[in-house]
Each structure stands twice: as C-alpha cells, then as structure tokens.
Write a structure and sequence with these properties.
Length: 466
C-alpha cells in the first residue's frame, strides 16, 4: 500500500507539472502580440505557395520576436534549412569593406579625401581624380564593360588597368559597380599589411562574435547553402572576385545591431556611409535610406540568392530575410513590416494574377470580390502601384489584352493618376492602337505628366503615323 500511495503521489505531481507547463505555454502564446501570429501565418502561406524558401528573423526593441526557417539548403531537398545555414548575402557584404574604411579613418590611417593614386596600386592616371569617398558612393565614374572579366582578383585588376577614361567626372554622378569595392579592399590591404579577409575577421567578425561568418566558402563548407530555381535546377558555382562574407541570419543580426549601437564605428562615421553627398536618391554603401520613414533597406542578389534587411529606426524594428531560391524578399519583408505597423500587407496583384491570366473577366470580378470582402483591410486598395504592377506583369507574359483591361480598371479606380494613364497608353501602343495610345498619353499630360515620358511617346507615335 505504501508503494502504491507513493506511486499515486508521483503521478499526481507529474500531471500537475504537465498541466501547469501547458498552461504557462498557452499563457505565453496569448501574451504574444497579434502581429507575430499574423507574420507566422503570412510567411507559412508564402512558403506553401512557393513564394518564399529561406530564413527569416524579426526583432523589436533589441529582442528577437520571430525566427523561422522554411525549405531546403539545396536543390536535392535532402537537408532542411536551419538558423545555422549560411547564405551568400550579395551586395550586403559590401558593407564590410565600407565599415573597414571608416575604421581606418577613425584610427587616422587614411582620409576620405585621399586620392586613390596615393596608395600606389598601379592604376592609370584617372586614379589621381578619384577620392576614397567617391568609391564609397559609387561616384568614381567607372563604366562596367559588357565583357569585363570578374572571374578572379587578377582578371579584375587587369581590366581596371585597361580603363583609359571615366564615364563621368568623379563626384558628378553615381553608377553602381564592383570596381569601387575591389579598390577599397586593395587599399585596406595596402594600409594594414593584412589581406582584406584577415582585417575583417580580426577587426569585425571576431569582436562581434559572428561565429558562422566565412569568406568565399567552398561547396562542402559546413552549413553552406546552394541556390536553386523554382525549376529545381541548382545554380552554377560562381567564379568571381574574392572578399564575399557569407553568414547565417543570427550573425547578420549581430552586424546590424553593431551598426545601430556604434559598437564598431561612431555615429558620425555611420551617417557618412549612410548619406550620398553627390547624387540624390543614389544607393551608397549601406543601402537606401528613406528619410520620411527613418528606415534603412539594403538588399543583395547573387544568382538565385536573395537577401534583404529592413532597419526601422523610428519603430525599433529589424527584419532580415535570406533566400537561396530566388524569393522576392524585398516585397515580402515590406509586407511583414506593414503587418507590424498595422497596415495592409497582402498583394492585390498576387491575389488575382492567376484569374487574370486565365480569364480577365474573372480577374476583374475577383478584384471587386476581394475589395468587398472581410479580408479587404489586409490589401492596399488605396495604392495604385498594385494594379500597375499587375498590368506590366501581364505585358511581360504577352497577355496584352488582359494588361489593357487591368490598366483600364486602374484608371477607373484612380482617375486622377497620370502614371496609370501613361501605362494604359503604353499597353495600347504595344497593341498598335495608336489613337487610344495618344488619347491616354494626352490624358496623362493633362493630369500633370510623367516626367516627360508621355510627351516623348506622343512624338514617337506621330512619327509612326506620318
């Protein structure tokens, strides 16, 4: 009897523990903000529909509130992605050479107004015109020849030496290119007597505890992903210049946090990298900055690798998305951001595209059904860009008649939008319906014009009719 009583007591205690554990878990779930559940539902649906394959991390006020992995590390689909999976982050990796430059500026090793000729890299005479600050803002004037060979550091250097003239005077314009990045890395090596990789590992990666970060990993490197398309075909291994830092999503979060909290460089240096002094609306070293939103967005592309992070200073939100499957992470991250801000976040274009392709009348009907449904608040029906984007997608698919119908719908919904009439004019022009093209381009001009495009197209149509 004594043993039986002890067993009963233990059973009761165990059941009590399980009950309280379950209750605590339920209570924690209830305490989560509603937007976390909405983010999870949205991203799971996106994965199910083949829109997203990759890793996602969302943080608010220095706390990771959502983190998940969806899909596989390569085309074989034998290994699932995890938080330890490392990705090629494309152009986001260029932030590391820019911050390395600022570290050396803060240490008094160089000045942003130093001309690159000072570092005796063996470059042509134009190196006497280009300053380091030009490199940071892609304002050096480099043209990128179509046949340029970037398969190795040596071939890139040889192509640089063959450039005999610049596309524009340094500081007068901006053109995104990898020459600027390549030269920055060589200057860092010249000053420090370290390889670029060694400098970054010693001065950035190790101090920040970025445990997964690795330069140019081989295909068999631990936790390395490979990219592949929706057709299941794996991307070829890239032969390219060195210096690309791959990392997992947690290391990228550490990097963004370090920039936000000035762990590596001062706020003054951060702001210097953030704002292009030469060209308005250009994309400097740290990606785009949207002043009205007080938000930084930087995205990268390499084959089917897609990466993006949103750094919302105003609302203290960080969103990171890494994909190895060609996912549109820029649009998806914007949707997640809108969820957190309580704004419409689903794509109208995406919701009705299939119906529009199969039967445009059903597509238009689907639009109005959606607009009048209980789900309408989740869609940006006040944003003309949604229908405009869908119209151009249909043009890409050679669905000209369907595109015209969507642009007609758009001008009905937004009768004062000049850009939509411009788009409708273009669709009619493609269909060689010149009279209706002229009519809509003229309407676009009456509504304020489209930066001269409508007038230019009218001139072209008049020449065609002569």
């Amino acid at each position: 009897m004594k043993l039986l009583n002890q067993f009963n007591v233990l059973t009761i205690l165990l059941l009590t523990f399980v009950f309280h554990s379950c209750k605590e878990k339920q209570d924690v779930e209830k305490q989560k903000p509603e937007y976390i559940k909405e983010i999870d539902a949205f991203i799971r649906e996106a994965h199910k529909e083949g829109i997203f394959n990759g890793n996602i991390l969302v943080a608010k006020k220095d706390t990771i509130i959502y983190q998940e992995s969806f899909g596989f590390t390569n085309a074989s689909k034998n290994t699932k992605l995890s938080s330890a999976s490392i990705f090629n982050i494309g152009s986001i990796a260029k932030e590391f050479n820019a911050v390395s430059i600022m570290l050396l500026v803060e240490r008094g090793k160089l000045s942003l107004d130093d001309y690159i000729s000072k570092f005796e890299l063996g470059l042509p005479k134009w190196s006497k015109k280009i300053k380091i600050r030009h490199l940071l803002n892609y304002a050096g004037g480099f043209a990128m020849p179509k046949d340029v060979d970037f398969s190795s550091d040596e071939t890139a250097f040889n192509s640089l030496k063959k450039i005999d003239s610049l596309l524009f005077e340094p500081g007068t314009n901006s053109k995104y290119n990898n020459y600027s990045v390549f030269i920055q890395q060589r200057i860092i090596e010249k000053i420090t007597n370290l390889s670029y990789k060694e400098f970054v590992m010693q001065n950035i990666v190790e101090p920040l505890g970025m445990t997964s970060a690795v330069f140019d990993p081989t295909p068999d490197h631990r936790n390395r992903t490979s990219c592949y398309g929706l057709d299941g075909v794996e991307c070829p291994e890239m032969e390219y210049i060195s210096g690309w830092l791959w990392q997992d999503i947690n290391d990228l979060y550490k990097w963004i946090d370090a920039m936000n909290t000035n762990k590596l460089i001062s706020q003054k240096s951060f702001d210097t990298l953030f704002h292009d002094p030469f060209v308005k609306n250009a994309i400097p070293s740290l990606g785009q900055y949207f002043k009205k939103l007080d938000l930084q967005r930087h995205n990268g592309t390499s084959y089917k690798y897609r990466s993006v992070f949103l750094n919302d200073f105003k609302n203290d939100i960080i969103i990171i998305m890494l994909s190895n499957n060609g996912s549109n992470v820029v649009r998806t991250s914007a949707s997640i951001h809108n969820i957190m801000l309580g704004k419409p976040y689903k794509s109208i274009a995406q919701a009705i595209e299939k119906e529009c392709v199969e039967d445009i009348e059903l597509g238009v009907k689907a639009y109005y059904n959606l607009k009048n449904s209980n789900e309408a608040k989740k869609y940006p029906f006040d944003n003309p860009a949604e229908l405009n984007r869908l119209g151009y997608k249909l043009l890409e698919l050679k669905k000209n008649h369907e595109a015209i119908k969507i642009f007609q719908l758009a001008t009905t919904e937004f009768p004062d939008n000049a850009n939509l009439y411009d788009s409708l004019g273009e669709a009619y022009l493609i269909n060689k319906n010149y009279d209706l093209a002229l009519k809509n381009y003229t309407k676009a001009i009456e509504l304020g014009g489209t930066n001269g495009n409508a007038k230019e197209m009218i001139r072209k149509i008049e020449k065609l009719e002569d």
